[in-house]
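Instructor's aside before we start: the two examples that follow are unrelated to each other. I chose them only because their records fit on one page, so don't look for a connection. First example below.
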Amino acid sequence: MSYQVLARKWRPKSFEELVGQKQTAKALINALESQRLHHAYLFTGTRGVGKTTIARILSKSLNCEKGITSHPCGECSSCIEIDQGNFVDLMEIDAASKTKVEDTRELLDNVQYRPTRGRYKVYLIDEVHMLSGHSFNALLKTLEEPPPHVVFLLATTDPQKLPVTVLSRCLQFHLKRMEQPQIVDHLAMILTEENIEFTKEALLPIAKGADGSMRDALSLLDQAIAFSGEKLELSSILEMLGSIDQSYCFQILAAIQQDDATGLMDIIQQMSQYSPDYFEVMSDWLSLLHSIAVAQATGNSEDNQITELAQTVSPADLQLYYQLSLQAKKDMPFAPHPRQGFEMAFLRVLAFRPNKTPGKPAKKKLANTAVSEGNTKTATHTDNNPTHAGTDSDVVAEQGNQSDNKIRLVASNGEDFENQPANSASWQATQNNNQALKMDIKTSEPLIEYPAKTAVLSSVDQVINEQIINEQAKSVSPAEKRSETKADNLITASKIASGEAPVSGSFSNEIESQPVPDKRLYPEVERIAFAQINFDNWHYAIDQMPIAGNGVQVLLNSLACFEGNLLKISHLSKVTHFLTDNLRQSIQLQIREYFADDGGDKLALEFISVDALPETPKQKQIKKYEEDIEKAYQNLTEDPCVAQLQRELGATIDKQSICLN
């Protein structure tokens, strides 16, 4: 067979030809030129980074007929025989196949004899960590004090398994993984010399698949040439590797940003036609998120798509996507199929994506279970079979999602009473039917889930528990009527907290505005002209301008005033690191665009770093938020329905659970 694989054909024959190991090469070159030679060298590193290659080059440098040199000639008989692997004084030993102590002793028996042809007798022991403990013990004494004509070159991918007694007797060099650009450049050089057409984009997946190993990269290149013929293109390389174009990752991110679950599933379906490695695709997705995060932090990127995404995806969302995806990749091996784990990873990202408006789920008619919708639900599990245990309350009061803020009433028979008051005829009819069932309180445990974004009323579950205990008879007793009244109060309190129920006094107007707050903190303030900006109204101006991300963080920690055609922004020094050149230009561009109608299209900005400011917009926002929380707390405390729950049931209001948005 005349063909020689690329990994052997293009193996470096001198220190100058080494790729990615300049530090090791420099140290060995200096040692050879100064004649400061050690008797034992240990080369460590992952597979395919040049451990045995460097050992062979060092052997040539020691035995070149022109003398000990860092530049072996490669033409003398010693150099040629070492390259061909048949030099009599270079013993290459595979420790994985010669692990017994007898093999080591046989090897050491010949150490005392001088070299046959060369200047040094070189022992190259590959995968030395595979030797047994007895073999290491037999080697130690010779390794520490070998004859002057012997040099040991040890190579291993797992130096942690070597005894410290061996490590201390060797001069150790750790060979680094190859960087992808280094692999791409080297492959491009080889293909050019081999007269094979290629595109540089086609080499990127090969360099990535090599995972830092040049030998693996050359093996993949051999496979790619056989697969693609005499022209290497990106599509054929991706097909060979089972990879996909990174454009799919961009499409996935766009679908997530748009809350488009259907579009997301369509993209994954298109990807599945190429039978991709879903673990590899998840790695590409994580790499994309990392590139966007770096672009946001540094303010620059060579990829225009990355730069654009860095301006549209918020840093908080990006970090959430990355953390969820990273955890999902760890869990993918446990999924029934890699694609299922891959799909669930992105559905989880959609589910936990902040500031989303979830679509209204289809109404389901389910027996013996409560259908939940939105963030808040108060459910009681029932059984319509009289021979089984159940509860008297098969109707579930639910707070709707934030987009419509409705109260849903779902009966156990699947009937849905939407937007009906708690004391309606439908409600009472369902209550009366359920009262005819025999109740087993021991096996019926109500499930109470409290609102995530409203005040939590602890001990409210006592309402339903008391209702279950009292409603034992078929007829409605006065005690049961009181229990129903308390249940009505529970629903009313839930409506009050969510802004649905009208209450008396000014409390009604203030509570109703809380569930759906305005995007602006100060909606009552009129738009400020740029010429009127000063320290006193700067926080209003920030609230009106469409600046987000790091830009708004800088502005919230600043004060500004207008002088002539110049807007001077004094910001705290702690946010100076956010102000990259790109961010400065972005803030100036958005401010100019916002005030264009006022003649601010030529407005100039000057950023001044200061150590302290009187009261920043951020501090004013925090102060206003605390005041609004206190006001909401007082309003809830004064409401008659809430007061009744506190008085009769000992309920309390958790102030920390009050959320205004």
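Example two begins here.
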Amino acid sequence: MGLAQMNPTVGDLEGNAAAVHRIIKEAKGQGVQVLAFPELMLSGYPPEDLLLKPQFLADCEAVLRRLAHAARGMAVLLGAPEPPAGPGGKPFNTCCLLYRGKVAARYRKINLPNYGVFDEKRYFEPGKRALVVNFGATAFAINICEDMWMDDGPTPDQVAYGGARIVINISASPYHRRKGPERERLMRRRARENSTFLCYVNLVGAQDELIFDGSSVVAGPDGRTIARGRPFEEDLIVTDIRLPVGPVPGHNRMRRRTGSRGKSRMLGLPQPVGQPRHELEVIRLPALPSPGVRRPLRHRTASHLKPLEEVYRALVLGTRDYVEKNGFNGVVLGLSGGIDSALVAAIAFDALGPERVHAVTMPSAYTSRETLADARRLAGSLRINLFEIPIGTIYDSYLESLDPVFAGLGTDVTEENVQARIRGNLLMALSNKYGWLVLATGNKSEVAVGYCTLYGDMAGGFAVLKDVPKTLVYSLSRYRNRIAESPLIPPSIIRRRPTAELKPGQFDQDMLPPYPELDRIIELYVERDMAVEEIVRRGLDPETVRSTIRMIDLNEYKRRQGPPGIKITPKAFGRDRRLPITNRYSGAGRSRKR
């Protein structure tokens, strides 16, 4: 059994097909008889509104049929969109069985997720039949992602009524913190519940905000992990599965009679207890070819990552794939001497190498010698290119131009924001001139409460820390220093009180609750949808909770205009959480007025 944990690019049909060809050849060399690729491997996941284009679906089908010719000598399971069954219909999310040069069978995903980041009911028609394929005397069940997460999914029927000994689930399951172990526990439980081998192959790589962590797994009938794929890397997991002789204990097997075209229909003798929930199709095909190599039974199990390493690897992968898949030749970011920009610079360095990372320090009259020195030290330790563009004279010219319009009005946050917008403007100029992607450096805590400047520090093409709370920023920075031979991020950056340095003596905590308290409120209100009273019962100050929630509610308009960023929590702003901008309902407990 081979599980091809792959990193496709959405819409790159030829590139994805070439990757499939390469892995088929590699798997043949290892004697693989059945090779499974992830959900929608051919098109990439999620293809979104590309699925509304008939030509895109036709092109997918044409490439699929070409690929079938490469599947000789083994059975290949490949995820691909399937055109609608008739005019006006929706396409199917399909697992195609390629065998002996043909598309020998198709399983259409039955359970379509429609929550969080998923919109599959918008695009797909659900399948209606569970599928079991008999290769000679060996019966395989095939299903897709959400089919395995649902308690009433097709697996029990495939095993009890179709006689499947092995269940193969192809998946594109997006990452959030600790998702890999959570997913594996589910797969082990499903294998144990059904007394079957369960082979689960997951996508790996990044698509816009979504990260796919791989972590494919093979579980045995006893619920134990037999093999596990590497997290956040492409991987070919080859596992020998030896089935026991005789019927599986506790399974209700039905007699089968082979019909035309190799398909089977079920007979009612003997009658099992209960009735199947799903219509079941059983297909009989010639036995699998003998493996081309002989080897002792062996398994390889990669280790789960520790929590901080897991998140850091996700951020590095998300940054690398966004840059590479969108064709940027490098990145640029503002380096303030603060911890957020320091962490983003370190992630970019690990994702792309020093030669493709460019930083800009843009000191003003309020920039301290210490933060400027730390920005220079950080650039030196990372070996990245650093530009220094003072903004004092530019800022003075802005104020001079605005002075007639602002006559008689006092200084306020407007003048602070002008500085941030000058910096955003300069970064975008460098992006235009050199073709670099601007990395925004704001974190989830700031984005949540609007402690950021629209068209200023929010300017950019990709927000690496958009879903990373401030307290986690500190933990990740310390983690990166621990694994380095010498600290990459100057310890003085980690120790310094957070400040935007847009006016004298300014500190974040002058306007915000302490970050541990703020992040806890954001987690409970945004990620867990708790009401004020529930949050207060967790021991948090009522007025702090209400004022924080008011800030979160009022700043949806800012978040809507921000760049995409990497999702690492169960509920990120953007795809996960979609609230109306024009909205008089306040989570703080009373209707709000503007």
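The chain has two domains: 2-244+258-285, 307-508.
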